[in-house]
Amino acid sequence: KKASTLATDKSNINRHIKPALGTHAVRQIAQADVERFQRAVARGLTKADVKTKKRGRAIVRGGQGAAARAVAVLGAIFAYAQKSRMRADNPVRGVRLFQPEKRERFLSADEFAALGTALNTAEKQGVNVKAINAIRLLALTGCRKAEILNLKWEYVDSHHKCLRLPDSKTGAKVVPLGQAAFKLLSKVKPVQDNPFVFAGTDGKHFVGLQKIWTYIRSKAGLDGVRLHDLRHSFASVGVADGLSLPIIGKVLGHTQTRTTQRYAHLGDDPVREAVNSVAKSVNQALSRKPKNSIKRGVGHSRCSAAA
Q1: Beta bridge partners of 176
Q2: For the segment 249-278, what is each residue's pLDDT rounded down to a tens digit?
Q3: How far apart are alpha carbons 291 and 288 in whole angstroms?
Q4: Burial of 104 (0-12, 13-18, 19+ CB in 10 A)
Q5: What is the three-class DSSP state of 171?
Q6: In this structure, how many other beta carbons lie within 10 angstroms of the beta carbon of residue 283?
Q7: How far is Cα 18 from Cα 40, in angstroms, rounded to an integer?
Q8: How many CB atoms lie within 10 A of CB 238?
Q9: Which has fewest Cβ within 10 Å: 4, 20, 197, 245?
Q10: Is residue 131 scored above 60 in pLDDT?
Q11: Burial label, 137 (beta-carbon count in 10 A; 0-12, 13-18, 19+)
Q12: E strands of 52-120, at which residues?
């Protein structure tokens, strides 16, 4: 597992599993206990606001998605317990996980325009240009936030106009750059002794993107829109332009086709547009008077009867 995944697992253990089940013996936990645990996390009974570092906080809210993830980690724990012969069965097996709420949001053309205006205005007002350009690059590439913030100059292949990321959520991948994205990157000036494209302090990448994004989206009238929704929107524009799902998956770096299937319904619009176009032509043909009258002969009658 990646370090980020392990950190999430540890968080589920410390924030949800231990507070709710930590005092129980391994052999005591039954399937009913696991089901109650999932419902409790979903209702927010394990929510907390904990200070972690000098300036850090861990805000635990709960919800169905958090509950399902916590139960999945619990299942792995009991799988280990079963393998180690601490108990004969896995009480998580057979528990139906809650389905997390879908939070996919796609920006419309008008919303993209509003976002562009807000970014331009913020830049003129002196808002951190690194954050503004990072947001623009997210919108122009469909990359994940971590992929852009961790982007180093050595990953930028100017000759082939692509990003060669050595690691991502799905492993190493190549991100092709459109002309607009490549032009944007060419305007970003490297910072001496800092390898990151969007450089921060002490040789690290820029931090504080979320705070600036909250400000930008408010000015654009996009309250509630997440940075990750720019990735969904990038894909939705591709589907609307007629790109196939395999191509979209390739661009986004999906390793499984079912991940890209979430955008399948967006293809209805171009299909509907095509149907409308054909129907319009047929309707015009039906409404137009024929130039020459068609003589009804025996041959025509036989054809009609055969039909």
Answers
A1: 162
A2: 666 665 565 655 566 555 555 555 655 666
A3: 9
A4: middle
A5: coil
A6: 10
A7: 13
A8: 19
A9: 4
A10: yes
A11: buried
A12: 57-60
Q: What is the residue type of 103?
A: R
- Sorting pLDDT into bands at 50, 70 and 90, what band is 5? confident
| Length of the chain as a residue count | 307
Distances (CA, A) of 264 to 35, 226, 250, 261, 277: 33, 21, 15, 5, 21
Q: Whole-angstrom distance between the N-terminal and C-terminal Cα of the chain?
A: 64
User: pTM (2 decimals)?
Assistant: 0.65
**Dihedral (CA of 254, 257, 263, 269) sign:** positive
* Contact in structure between 34 and 92 (CB atoms under 8 Å): yes
Residue 232, both tokens: 């969904």
Query: Which residues 6+ apart lie within 8 Å of 71 measured at CB?
Result: 34, 37, 38, 41, 92, 95, 97
Say if strands 48-51 and 173-176 run parallel, antiparallel, or are unpaired: unpaired
Residues 29 and 93: beta-carbon distance below 8 Å: no
Q: How far is CA 287 from the centre of its chain?
A: 47
